[in-house]
Amino acid sequence: MKQIQEIPGQVGIGRAYADFFKGLIEFRGRSTRAGYWWVQLLAYAVNFVVMMAVSMSLVTQALSQYGDDVTKATSQATSQMTPIILILSLVTAVVELSLVTRRNRDVGITGRGTAVLLVVQYALVVPSWIAMIQALVAGTAMTASSNGVTAFLTLALSIFQFVLKLLPTDSLTTRSDGAVARFFMRYKADAPN
Predict the structure, then answer these.
(1) 47-60 burial by CB neighbour count: b if 16+ within 10 A, else e?
(2) Which residues, 6+ apart, have CB-to-CB distance to 72 below 8 Å?
(3) pLDDT tens-digit profile of 98-156?
(4) Could you say which of 55, 88, 106, 148 is the most buried, measured as most Cβ atoms within 10 Å of its Cβ?
(5) Which pTM was predicted?
(6) What angle do CA 23, 128, 105 make, to 5 degrees?
(7) Quick one: which H or E segment has residue 86?
């Protein structure tokens, strides 16, 4: 596959989408802020349209089946939405792995650092996916299953990941010889201390 090497200030919407689809499973290279956010805009729009269409269809179907019993209709629509939400979440996560890796590298996070961040993030999210699968298999409505610590850590890591996506190119590079800094941040001779 072609290694994606986006240059800040030279990535428009067309280039961002072309690079995304060329580098769908390419983890090497870099993606600029523009390259990342144009693709995110499309992903959010597609997810929104798909979820709204499916939700409206399932709710309409459930209401026609149960009439005025909104509780039963909502319960059925929610249980039918569970596999759709799960599949959409998994597809989105897999497709965005390479883009997130390239964006983190552009900011200055090493591949190892990105791997650690993603492993922790998915370790926090997987239990809720398992709960969704269990609800699907059991035929029950999906419920929230998270404790306060897990929710807080997931939120904190999500905010950190969001901030990483806002940073300019090479903003987290380092000149440090410290093992932790070099594990997580890319070495650059002219980086600030």
Answers:
(1) eeeeeeebeeebbe
(2) 62, 66
(3) 889 989 999 999 999 999 999 998 888 887 777 767 776 776 665 655 567 778 888 89
(4) 106
(5) 0.74
(6) 30
(7) helix 70-107
